[in-house]
Amino acid sequence: MTTSTVVKAESEQAPPRPARRRARDRLGPPWFFVVPALLVYAAIVLYPSVSGIVYAFTDWSGLGDWSFVGLKNFDTLFHDEQALGALKNTLLLTVAIVVVQNAIGLALALGVHTRIKSRILLRAVFFAPVVVSPVMVAFLWKYVYNPAPDAGLNGLLGAIGLDSLRQDWLGNPSLALWSVAFMVIWQHAGYSMVIFLAGLEGVPADLHEAATIDGAGRFSRFRYITWPLLAPATTINLMLSTIGGLKLFDQIFAATNGGPGYATETLSTVLYKQAFVFGRFGYSTAVALVLALFVAAVSLVQIRYLRAREDQT
Amino acid sequence: MTAISNGLSRAQFLRMVGGLAAGAGAAGVLAACGDGGSSGDGSATLTVVGVADEKAPLDLLTKAYTDSGAKVTFKTSYAPTDQVQTSVRTQLNGGNAPDIHVLYPGSGSAMSTGEIGKTPGLLADLSGQSWTSLIPANLKSSYSYDGKVHLFSSGLTVIGVIYNKSVFAGANVQIPKTYDEFLTACDTLKKAGKVPLALGAQTPWVTQLITYAFVASNVYRDTPDFDDQMLAGKATFLDSGWKQSMTEYMDLRDRGYFNDNPNGTTLEQSTAMVANGQAAMAVQVAPLLPAFRDAAKNKDDISMFPFPSADTADKVYTWGGANVGIGVHEKSKNKEAALKFIEFLGQQENINKWCEAVAGIPIKRDASSKVDPALESFLPLLDGGRVAPVGQRWPNAEVQPTHFSVIQELLGKKTTVDDALKKMDEVYKKDA
Questions:
Q1: Which of B85, B113, B202, B419 is best to mutate for the A interface (most A CBs within 10 A)?
Q2: Closest to A111 in 3D by CA, of A92, A126, A132, A130
Q3: What's the domain range around A156?
Q4: The total number of structural domains that make up chain A
Q5: Record's InterPro entries (chain B) (predicted)?
Q6: What percent helix, strand, coil does chain A show, rounded to 5?
Q7: Does B202 contact A64 at a Cβ distance shorter than 8 Å?
Q8: CA–CA gap between residue B328 and residue B92 (Å, rounded)
Q9: Is the ipTM of this complex over 0.90?
């Protein structure tokens, strides 16, 4: 196909990477410029984080003395029904958020990457929820999800004759997790949109022109030009939304506090409650450590796969 | 950089930034030195951190204390319970806790007397203060850890039924004295188009109130030492009156006496329902009476009666426990000044003022005590010992949140009463 030939030809013309690296070395600032920032980062982030790991092997309550308990906290964690339920919820939420948020983000980016007059306004409108505090978003959506038949979303459904779709959005244990997922997607779809938009800006217009001359339709141009060249933006979006989904806390804490029952409990809410509500800092640190390792592992696998995809294009 | 190219040299710029940073740092250090310190004239600045419920009485009584000539300046701050639990526990561990801080009665929550008292050197001993002799015998354990009084709490609070008098009058319903009468009243109100019982179970702590209201009669009337039996491993939730209590709770759900979707309804929404007459009653704690009154068009419409969870009126017990209070940090540099303030709060006149501000019932009443008229029907039960402080002696801080969660699951029909109680028994046996 012509389009793929064009893409390949351009990549062949790219300068070899070592030369690029050498040029960067000559022009870049000296390496020791990073030392002050690194020291601050080490003191504020690395040292507390690494020293905190020790507590994962203790019975510390958050107050007073503690003693080592070996791997007991990890043994408890892998037999803890509540934590395993929270892990399942976390994974379901993450998959829903990664897939739907990025699909909507891409659709919005394609929509506002046109010549329509209101595109600047629309970009601002779609991005606006991103700048609102997650806790504020949760409180706002608690109003939207009011279970009263004449309030919020239920009121809207009633007004357009869809009374049968009225729900107890946050109170129904079977529905609450998806209501939370929708709330998070609503807030962050604009963020994905901006990253995809940046990717779209980098797609050369002449490729589209050439493909159009060759008779490629709109879908073919997206499939063979836009989508492959959006690979870096896709990598970033998938990485960020996966990490965000796995760490999700604020919106859940403010909207449902993990309830009803344990229906929206995630690993982050479990570790918060274990530490600050139940006074089990040792166990909570073990949960945090497992979560951090899990996020790191998922991110590494994801980035290797997506980078490989980028190299193929 | 524009600023540099316009006549400001790199060295000048760095000196300026450094100077600003040093200035900011020095200001911070000076401000920190000013916190909670003592001045040369013998006066002290006492830092006080409380929960929002304590703002009204503490604002009133700290002012009264300074007006009385005490050489003390107060630096008070208030926050929701979650935030206080996080910040004050961290400060206690870090050695920079406020001189006086919120403390919950009994054990079983992260900021409770029993939980903080377990770690030596955090809570000052108040046992020698004269007001401690006023603490009712059945509440001593709520104020103490290991035999020492650590909690100052001015009085008791109760769980009962907050109701709208106009709705009752409109449906021609009288205050029920027995459980049968209560069910009849709910039925009549439902037929009159009113929600008999507003329940805002999305607010987790609200979920426990109906269980506690039942348990006071179903468990503690015949087994007053139930907590001791549980702690000794001789009793379980599943094989006790808790089962009957939760079954009756869910029976109210099945009869349709709650508002639709209680799990999706917040405390504020349920309060509004009673206040505006959409609902007739809500099982609630007495300190929320002012909130219901504030939400009602006519404050006099709102009143309260004991939850009638027995076949005959004379068998009704009420949940009654010490109200949230304060403790003194043992390592405070201003410990003596803080203890003097607690002694001041313990004077009968000030106990009365605190209770009036929170619709509480003083630990000891005198002629000048003004109990909220809505709570007068509780006084015979309290004076007659028909009171149970359910939930103030849990062995760890997970039992109570587990209770919240299983009630939400029961309301959502995701579990059974037996499974819910088994889960609570499992959590009860966990290490503290």
A1: B202
A2: A126
A3: 2-312
A4: 1
A5: Bact_solute-bd_prot1, SBP, TAT_signal
A6: 75, 0, 25
A7: no
A8: 11
A9: no
